Amino acid sequence: MPVDCPKCNRKILYDEDIRCGKCKLPFHLSCVALTNSTVDNWICELCTTMEITQPNTNSNFVLSEFHFNSLLLQLSSLTAKMDENNALLQKQSDQISKCASEIVSLKHENTQLKERLSILETQSIQQPPTGELMYELRDRIKREKNVVIYNLKEADNSDPTQTDYAVVINLLKTIISITENEVASVMRLGQTKNPTRPRPIKVTLSMPEVAINILRNKYILQSSSYRDVKIRSDLTKQQTTHLRQLNEQLRQRKLKGETNITIKYKNGEPTIVSSEESNKRGREELISPARPFKAARSTIPK
Question: How far is CA 129 from each of CA 122, 126, 137, 161, 180, rounded to the nearest angstrom?
Answer without folding.
Answer: 14, 10, 12, 48, 40
